[in-house]
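Q: A reviewer asked whether we had any structural model of the full assembly, not just the individual parts. We don't, so I'm hoping you can provide one. Inputs are below.
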Amino acid sequence: MTSTLHVDSVTKDFGSVRAVEDVSFTVEQGKFVTLLGPSGCGKTTTLRMIAGFETPTEGRVRLGDHDITTEEPYLRPTSMVFQNYALFPHKTVGENVGFGLKMRDVPADERSERIAKMLELIELPGIENRGIDELSGGQQQRVALARALITEPEVLLLDEPLGALDLKLRKNMQVELKNLQEELGITFVYVTHDQEEALTMSDEIIILNEGEIEQRGTPTEIYESPQTRFVADFIGDTNLLDGTYVENGNSAAVECGSVDVPIDSLSAAADGQSLSVSIRPEKISLGDGAGTGTGNGNGNETAVTLRGEVEDVIYQGNVAKIHITIDGTELVLEQQVIDTVNLPTPGSECTISWDQENTNVLTG
Amino acid sequence: MSVADSIRDRVGSDSDPNDGAGSGLKLATLLTYLFLYGPILVVVLMSFDAGRYGLRWDFTTEWYASLATRSDLIGSLWLSIQIGIVVMIISTVLAVVAAFGLSRFDWPKRKGPIATYLIFVPLTLPIIIYGIGLFVFFTQLGIGRGFVPIVVGHVLYTLPFATLVVGAGVIGLDRTLEEAAMDLGADPLTTFREVTLPALMPNIVAAALFSFTLSFDEFLISFFVSGSGAVPLPVRIWGMVRADIEPEVYAISVIVLLISIVIAAMATRLRRF
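A: Here is a predicted structure for the entire assembly that you could use as a starting point for your response.
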């Protein structure tokens, strides 16, 4: 059975506060979709409406042809992994994992069989009789996952499930979660504020800000082609330049103070309109100031080349952040450090360049 | 020299704060505890004293043995235990209901704090008012004095304490545990039975034990509403000590003391608030 999750024009008010405003998206069966945004953006509220812990003020939630907007949480074919795991402290690991089966009146012997199988899947076999407080944070996280998965939900909802783990464990779990999701073919709706986590695991990312969807797309689309100022700023590091759109015959540019950034002419923009552009630091390459930049690829794209002065060099190990000023406008570029001798010295003249297609014009 | 340095200098010469305490503080501490437990010690010593009026103290267990023949004292002890158990059950059940009502019910604007305040205000009221009120109330009803009025009075007295203890647990309860249970298919009643109640059990047991001890030791309310047929132990003892203290009173007092200490110790061990 395939059932697509539909969230249709969902709005949620808490008193006079609007937490979620007119959010719509669909998730196909077996996809890994991440709701990404800063705290208070409405991502957890959206997830809780899918789980049934909150009822939308407006809009519908459907699973396949089945409208679940007002269905009680205990009747929905969804399962949730909570941020704090919410494992029952007075029950053993086995009782925790088997809770959903017990609620579905699965006989005891079948239950223990499936619990054992599930614990094997999360690579913690044979710990049925342990207490929850005997487990490490990472083990608790896996047990919480097992408890949610054992009922074979159609949609698994995950609310920042890796937030409490240390960095190394978190990175391992990211890969494991993704593998597990692909193996089981269950739809995952994942909530996080960690953009790197979202980029690593998701088939699709939905970026929320102040209760509304800013942009949705694959990780590559979100990172490479942000459409709004918020998305460009929130995902990764970037150079954000605010300016005005100027059209001049066939060519067009955004005038950002002392810097003109050439762009393709826009049919949607009028002369003099305020626009922002975003250029990722790693897309910019550094020349020696003698003339042309080295280019960033095979040289047949349209390159943007500017002259400036090296303001500061920040060495970070594998990469260096190089701050450049162009008549008072500052840009940051990032360079792989292959040889520390080749790092520029502050105060020296330089040219910088990037491919024009790496200039993202932000319309929102 | 900075302020911090000068403080460190002064403290540094006397690194262990207990060094300077000396024997004066130790004596004061000892006297404080003697003051706290002195009256209890007197009762315990008297219960083992053979000579009733003499200046000498001779050990005996005679009074504990003769206690068995005192059907008035034993009867009152048994009645107090029965009242304590009934009060404990009613008070604890009501406390669970009240605690959930106060913290979970969707109260209209500002009514919640008022309702909470009204539950806890009896903690500060003079208990004698309860005694008088209950006496008048049950007399008017034609019920008079006895077991039921005592139980009702004790429940009124213990309920705020019990609600406080259970309420602390309800407030501290992790709501996501209940959500997790519902998410896994438990309806609200099953969630309450499987998750909420077990999580609250330490508080509920503590509330029950407190209710029992409070009722067991209660005197003022009992004094007003107990009758000739139903006299709880504290009222019985009070009736016996006016003219001349019979040594069995000391003995039964020590037994009451032991019961209270054991229950209080159990309650303290369970406390999580």
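A: Points you may want to mention in the reply: The mean pLDDT of chain A is 89. Residues 224 and 310 of chain A are 26 Å apart (CA to CA).
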